[in-house]
Write a structure and sequence with these properties.
Layout: H1 8-20, E1 23-24, H2 25-30, H3 39-51, E2 55-60, E3 63-68, H4 72-87, H5 92-101, H6 107-122
Antiparallel strand pairs: 1-3, 2-3
Helix pairs in contact: 1-3
């Protein structure tokens, strides 16, 4: 399983690739918001993502059509796991407490979470 973290630029490229499903560098670059990186920079990022195991490609002569080798869901789980481990002492309770203290979760949100947990236990 992949474990290397992505930089912000790499995450931005992965978001484009997840949205597109697959594509050639020139087509994927068109989907990048302004300011767009140079073609060679974008291509280098994609090749780096391939080296890390996040991207794969199909070859058509000298052209490469890239596609995600890691789903957005798999990356999301890895990302959250790393954040919880690195910043919240591996405690999801600490994560929830953080959001409560930041006024990002209210009582109704917490009740919904409790209902979700109880429902999950029943399944």
């Amino acid at each position: 399983m992949i474990s290397k973290r992505l930089t912000k630029r790499e995450e931005d490229v992965m978001k484009i690739l997840w949205e597109a499903g697959k594509g050639f560098v020139k087509d994927l670059l068109k989907q990048h918001p302004e300011p767009k990186p140079h073609y060679n920079t974008f291509s280098t990022i994609i090749r780096g993502l391939e080296e890390k195991g996040y991207v794969a490609h199909n070859s058509y002569g000298n052209s490469h059509e890239y596609y995600p080798a890691v789903s957005k869901e798999v990356y999301r789980k890895l990302f959250i796991k790393n954040v919880v481990s690195d910043y919240f002492e591996s405690s999801y309770k600490n994560v929830v407490s953080f959001f409560v203290n930041e006024d990002k979760l209210n009582v109704d949100d917490l009740k919904e979470l409790i209902e979700l947990i109880e429902k999950k236990k029943q399944d």
